[in-house]
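Tokens for chain A. Residues wanted.
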């Protein structure tokens, strides 16, 4: 075998291995801005902040944020989390911009559980017919521990604060005139308790937004408030993987957990795994385990995310958690086999301040239930395995012989701990997979092949290396365009006209047009750049704009038609060769496309890296994310949501939001209700013109092919209907065919039914949202 053939084969094998490693790395997330300045936080089960912003000691006092090494360091308010973010859609619905769930805004009057289930099928709020009763995990995503619980027997809500955002959701406390307590603000879910009950009736896990707790309620003889939900059917579904080193990764949430708890490790001052809240914080923040030293005590929402509500001690003989985890067995207050309560870093604030901290019960939720007939108390599983309650942060459990609270919650104070950490993409991170050993072998094999490849390539001859960006070919302003908005009239270094804007790099269509590059757009926010689609001429337009490929923080694709990804491969390769991390987002098929590119150009990339004195592994840092529409994620401080739109192949539209403003890029689309929803209230909607734009050569009539193309692109009527229904303030028409465009006639036609601003785009045109 000749040297060239050997080099080619080794490079292909190396890239094949690296491609697999690359796909595994797409599951790794980072919570550290230093590790990854623009992490993609889109996850099917995105855990949102509890909303707690103050720190507390164990006597309930608010304290300054403790520093590392100080007592009470590592509590909820000090943990970087995704802030709650909602959008009021103005039609009785609220969209959670983190989870992708849409909610009804007003729970209305209380319902029986039977009515709550039946009314979901009849609900038509916002014009939707796919509402459902939420699971307990979906509903718990709304809880905010900035709330303050009232005294259970109080006659007033004075001094209390709901545990839900009342800026977006209607809320009411219990109705005293109907014999209810002030804290009777329980909301129903579709999650039933699998354990045994006192009288054989079924129990349902509900969330109480008046006192900030989860417990099991009877499905008969009681009424509940109800919020219905739609969207993101994967929310609340875990994707656990045993890493083989005593850790478990949940790819759905981006969190890594200890497989074993504090009991297995004989942790704490008493060496039995039981700790007070302060001891739990201290142990977690000082823990080194499985090679990691950044463990912490989880927040309430994080710990509740790993509850398995299909399991319980009575139903399955196990704790309410996936069996991939190990749970210490205990003997409970009824002298029976059971499982512990686990501390969280979250404080529950009440009338006495922050004296209590939240725990999650993975065993029975015991309480001393008073029988009014005989005055006796019975110790029963009153709340259910999987409930969320609170314990005093310190003290002696013997001071509470019959528990505390309205239902005599058993007080333990000395609870167990299961630590968590955020998955990072830095050099300390470990790749999580279904088979950790297999993945380690894969990485080792790739490293050996890389070394062999470098040895062979060192013997190769040197060739001149291309300079990166192609030189400009002297594009000139379009004739008749005021001020000449193309290349040579723009500054050499792009200076955005606003903090948040879009530049249309290419406004053309599949047909070659010397005046218009292929479809491409550049979103800029705070001097960071996000490239959407890469048609013919994209690199030249970036060069004219003065934007380097090194400045591109993320590459997004709407679909995989040639006119939209024609320059994706060279941009991808040159971007990777320049080092650093880059996010790649696109519809199904994106991973396959990237894998093909890297395999096909393996030898070329290895050669160029050798010229730079680096290994291939020095530059392989793309983070690939395939989106199907309906997901939401973040690029740095910018929120991105997606929708699948109608086209001849799988196509995804993107909504970019920052500073309370929004820009939507449709990609190619026929008429799509999903695009209307995505673009509701948008400041700018960049919309496929569908080649139905009016041209002079057609005698002032829409393009001749528009009628035949309505399965792939919109007609002008479709354009104005979608724009008007969405309420977009401004639309920008792109995907424009060759020929002179009659802009005035096009705009006049659209304005017959759409009353916003219409712009017929040209290359290198910057468009900014109106100031709020």
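Reply:
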């Amino acid at each position: 075998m000749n040297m060239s053939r050997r080099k080619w084969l080794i490079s292909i094998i190396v890239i094949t291995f690296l491609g697999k490693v690359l796909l595994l790395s797409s599951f790794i997330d980072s919570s550290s801005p230093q590790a990854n300045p623009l992490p993609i936080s889109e996850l099917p089960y995105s855990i949102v902040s509890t909303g707690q912003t103050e720190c507390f000691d164990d006597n309930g006092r608010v304290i300054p944020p403790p520093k590392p090494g100080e007592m009470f360091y590592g509590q909820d308010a000090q943990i970087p989390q995704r802030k709650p973010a909602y959008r009021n859609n103005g039609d009785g619905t609220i969209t959670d911009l983190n989870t992708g769930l849409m909610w009804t805004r007003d729970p209305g009057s209380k319902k029986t559980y039977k009515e709550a289930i039946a009314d979901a099928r009849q609900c038509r709020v916002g014009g939707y017919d796919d509402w459902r009763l939420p699971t307990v995990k979906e509903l718990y995503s709304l809880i905010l521990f900035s709330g303050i619980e009232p005294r259970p027997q109080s006659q007033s809500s004075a001094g209390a604060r709901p545990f839900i955002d009342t800026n977006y959701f209607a809320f009411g406390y219990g109705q005293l005139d109907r014999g209810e307590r002030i804290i009777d603000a329980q909301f129903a879910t579709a999650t039933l308790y699998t354990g045994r009950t006192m009288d054989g009736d079924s129990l349902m896990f509900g969330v109480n937004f008046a006192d900030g707790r989860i417990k099991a309620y009877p499905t008969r003889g009681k009424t509940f408030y109800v919020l219905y939900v739609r969207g993101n059917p994967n929310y609340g579904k875990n994707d656990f993987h045993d890493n083989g080193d005593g850790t478990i990764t949940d790819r759905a949430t981006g969190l890594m957990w200890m497989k074993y708890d504090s009991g297995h490790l004989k942790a704490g001052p008493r060496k039995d795994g039981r700790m007070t809240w302060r001891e739990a914080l201290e142990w977690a923040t000082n823990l080194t385990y499985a090679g990691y030293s950044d463990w912490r005590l989880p927040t309430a929402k994080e710990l509740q995310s790993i509850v398995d509500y299909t399991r319980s001690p009575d139903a399955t003989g196990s704790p309410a958690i996936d069996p991939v985890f190990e749970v210490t067995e205990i003997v409970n207050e009824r002298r029976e086999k059971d499982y512990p309560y686990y501390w969280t870093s979250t404080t529950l604030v009440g009338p006495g301040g922050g004296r209590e901290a939240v725990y999650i019960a993975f065993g029975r939720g015991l309480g001393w239930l008073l029988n009014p007939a005989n005055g006796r108390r019975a110790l029963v599983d009153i709340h259910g395995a999987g409930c969320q309650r609170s314990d005093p942060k310190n003290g002696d459990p013997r001071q509470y012989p019959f528990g505390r609270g309205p239902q005599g919650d058993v007080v333990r104070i000395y609870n167990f701990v299961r630590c968590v950490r955020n998955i990072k993409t830095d050099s300390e991170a470990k790749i999580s997979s279904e088979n950790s050993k297999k993945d380690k072998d894969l990485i080792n094999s790739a490293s050996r092949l890389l070394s062999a490849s470098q040895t062979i390539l060192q013997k190769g001859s040197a060739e001149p290396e291309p300079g990166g960006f192609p030189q400009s070919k002297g594009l000139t302003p379009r004739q008749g365009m005021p001020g000449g908005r193309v290349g040579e009239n723009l500054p050499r270094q792009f200076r955005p006209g606003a903090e948040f804007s879009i530049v249309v790099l290419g406004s053309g269509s599949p047909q070659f047009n010397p005046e218009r590059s292929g479809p491409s757009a550049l979103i800029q926010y705070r001097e960071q750049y996000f490239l959407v689609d890469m048609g013919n001429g994209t690199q030249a337009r970036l060069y004219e704009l003065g934007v380097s490929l090194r400045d591109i923080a993320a590459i997004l694709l709407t679909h995989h038609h040639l006119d939209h990804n024609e320059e994706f491969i060279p941009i991808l390769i040159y971007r990777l060769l320049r080092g650093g991390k880059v996010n790649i987002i696109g519809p199904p098929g994106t991973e396959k496309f990237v894998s093909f590119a890297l395999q096909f150009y393996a030898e070329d990339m290895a050669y160029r890296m050798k010229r730079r004195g680096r290994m291939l592994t020095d530059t392989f840092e793309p983070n690939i994310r395939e989106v199907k529409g309906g997901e939401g994620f973040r690029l740095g401080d910018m929120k991105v949501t997606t929708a699948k739109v109608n086209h001849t192949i799988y196509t995804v539209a993107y909504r970019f939001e920052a500073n309370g403003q929004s820009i939507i890029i449709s990609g190619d689309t026929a008429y799509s209700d999903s695009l209307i929803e995505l673009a509701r209230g948008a400041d700018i909607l960049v919309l496929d013109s569908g080649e139905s734009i009016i041209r002079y050569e057609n005698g002032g009539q829409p393009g001749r092919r528009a009628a035949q193309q309505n399965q792939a692109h919109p007609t002008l009527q479709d354009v104005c209907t979608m724009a008007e229904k969405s309420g977009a303030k401004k639309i920008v028409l792109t995907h424009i065919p060759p020929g002179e465009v009659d802009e005035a006639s096009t705009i006049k036609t659209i304005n017959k039914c759409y009353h916003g601003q219409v712009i017929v785009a040209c290359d290198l045109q910057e468009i900014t949202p109106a100031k709020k």
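The CA atoms of residues 724 and 754 lie 5 Å apart. Confidence is low (pLDDT under 50) at residues 1-41, 425-492, 703-710.
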